[in-house]
Design goal:
Strand order of the largest sheet: 3-4-2-1-5-6-7
Order of helices and strands: HEHHHHHHEHEHEHHEHEHEH
Mean pLDDT: 92
Low-confidence stretches: none
Number of strands: 7
Radius of gyration: 19 Å
Helix content: 40-55%
Largest sheet: 7 strands, parallel
Number of helices: 14
Distance between the termini: 29 Å
């Protein structure tokens, strides 16, 4: 079980936190056929089946094996063409009809004012919108009113890499990442400001996302003495030396949990425990008027 630091409990209770949902959270979902959403790697591997040119296919598979997913995705999209590529994305992340899992319900219980996700599937968005009777606002990186959405007193889900319903706008390839930093500069400025003013809790995220890594590295160098952000990951996800480097270079504290037979039950139980502690803290804050 994860032992949650008191300051992360307090910051979530006071809604001074941002919860970031990665693909590991979506991976808990299944559809009616028992299928789960593909990871970025397995999406690319499946996409290779659509490449007719064997030389190009081998090149993409080699890039995938080297964890160069951005370049692999760029070649895959260029080779297939936007129309076929976009339909492939929809067939993998929208058409299967993945259902929310217990982890989505538990994250929703944390009642964070701001949730950020690079996931372009709509699993958590649908759950939050349905459960809140449509009172949760969902914005993506292309929207020009993100700041207004943050300033009003409503819950916000910010999809920083787009959503599957508008596949032409997805930030998914090397070129789209590079273009987005200029084209949607204001969105990155918002993320930068939130990193300074809020405590981030990363759930189900990898440490290799270029956007997240760049923002955290920049934060670490500019604000060496400020508070840390928190990254939840399994104990087997990286070696001790790599974890040490991540903590030093990204200014994050790692909160680790054990997997049992590949299952992430301990993570779910830990999040339930976190939600209980946050609710108790909010009750205490209300009694003492300590907000």
């Amino acid at each position: 079980m994860i032992v949650w630091p008191k300051n992360i409990i307090d910051d979530i209770a006071l809604r001074k936190s941002v919860i970031v949902l990665g693909s590991g959270v979506s991976a808990n979902s299944v559809n009616a056929a028992g299928q789960r959403p593909k990871t970025w790697k397995s999406f690319l591997e499946t996409g290779c089946a659509h490449i007719a040119d064997l030389k190009v296919k081998r090149e993409v598979l080699k890039l995938i094996s080297q964890n160069d997913f951005l370049t692999a995705c760029e070649i895959l999209k260029t080779t297939l063409g936007s129309f076929i590529f976009n339909n492939f994305v929809i067939s993998e992340y929208q058409a299967p009809g993945y259902q929310p899992a217990s982890i989505h319900e538990t994250i929703y219980r944390l009642d964070s004012k701001i949730v950020i996700t690079p996931n372009f599937d709509n699993i958590y968005d649908r759950y939050a919108s349905t459960t809140s009777a449509g009172t949760v606002t969902v914005k993506e990186h292309t929207d020009d009113d993100i700041v207004e959405a943050l300033r009003i007193n409503k819950r916000l889900i910010l999809k920083i890499h787009g959503k599957v319903e508008t596949p032409n706008n997805l930030i998914f390839t090397r070129e789209s990442y590079a273009q987005a930093r200029q084209k949607y500069k204001s969105m990155y400025e918002v993320l930068d400001a939130l990193l300074i003013t809020h405590t981030f809790l990363f759930l189900g995220c990898g440490t290799n996302d270029p956007d997240i890594r760049l923002l955290l590295e920049d934060y670490r160098h500019r604000f060496r003495n400020s508070g840390d952000h928190y990254f939840v990951l399994s104990k087997t996800s990286a070696s001790p030396s790599v974890k040490n480097i991540l903590e030093q270079t990204l200014k994050i504290k790692l909160l680790e949990y054990s997997t049992i037979g590949g299952a992430h039950t301990v993570l779910l139980n830990s999040l339930v425990n976190l939600a209980d502690q946050v609710e108790a803290t909010r009750t205490e804050i209300a009694l003492t008027q300590g907000w």
